[in-house]
Specification:
Layout: H1 2-18, H2 22-33, H3 38-44, H4 51-89, H5 107-120, E1 125-127, E2 132-134, H6 135-138, E3 170-172, H7 178-186, E4 191-200, E5 211-221, H8 226-241, E6 247-254, E7 257-266, E8 282-291, H9 293-298, E9 307-313, H10 315-323, H11 338-341
Parallel strand pairs: 1-4
Antiparallel strand pairs: 2-3, 4-5, 5-9, 6-7, 7-8, 8-9
Helix pairs in contact: 1-2, 1-4, 2-4, 5-10
This protein binds adenosine-5'-[phenylalaninyl-phosphate].
Amino acid sequence: MEENLLSIKNAALSLILDAKDDKMLEEIKLQFLGRSGQLTLAIKEITKVPVEERKEIGILANEVKQTIEEALNEQEKILSKKRKQIIFERIDVTNPSVKPPLGHLHLVTQAIEEISAIFSKIGFERVRYPEVEWDWYSFGALNFPQNHPARDEWETFFIKESPHEKYGAMLLTPHTSSGQIREMERKKPPIRMLNIAKTYRRQSDISHVPMFHQFEGLVVDKDIAITHLKGTLDYFVRSFFGKDRKSRIRPYHFQFTEPSFEVDVSCGVCNGKGCKVCKAGWLELGGAGMVHPNVLRAGKIDPNEYSGFAFGFGPERCMMMKEGLKIEDLRILYSNNLDFLEQF
Ligand code: FA5
């Protein structure tokens, strides 16, 4: 009897381990534990065992039944886990695919691309001149006197390098106007340059960042006049900000242009009437002017034969003005804050 019970247990366990699905498990259950299952019948036989052995055989029979039931439960769990994995791993080719997260260009880069496209339509050639520059290109050739405050360490980042014997100190260019002389050295007029580059100043507050961008336009040719400058500014303002926007020039002072102007764009919020965003109907874009004769001379161009105009604006500011964004702190543009950047 004991042997019979043990062989029933072994047979049941080996079948259970080989079972591939719930149906097979159900059949095994019936085969051993069903009404006329092998174990059920064997248990019925216990009454025939001599009384003194009956208790022990009864305990063994219970153990065998319990072992078989536990093995059935365990195998059921294993099969159900496998089933879930298969469902999970199955690829349904008819399902719409999961799109991988896509990034996009930084909003300043977007503005730069748009500005380049606008100027290329009227023949401006995009260039990019060094960010690490000599004093000569950033200041000297641009008519800055030796004691001009822009040359002060509090304004400009200087690089710890021995000065160039001809070009002076090495620095991070504080404006893209340094590209004017480099362009005049590269080619003779007619010149239509758009220099877009990074620029650096020792400034950091809510409306200034130490690293920002500028785009510099330079046109040098025969008989270039202020009207050409004004026409170009109007064209840019209409193309970038919208067809109803206007530009305005106001007298100002730069070392490298004469006359010099500050350029404003009419406010898109109030249409030039005056509001909280703009104060008097205008927003400031940047600087411009007619190229100073000394600058043309420094670029080896005869000011009696040629004249030119130049302008320099910040794409960061243009982009903010275009979107009507009231960014409370300009530094957020460069803080890699995805919550902010993903909105654009
Ligand atoms: C200039 O830098 C002149 N080189 C522009 C120029 C070019 C005048 C050609 C005449 C002819 P300004 O310092 O005003 O000018 O700077 C121009 C623009 O750069 C500003 O209007 C502003 O948009 C941007 N800018 C200047 N400093 C910062 C800064 N720290 N952070 C962000 N943007 C700045």
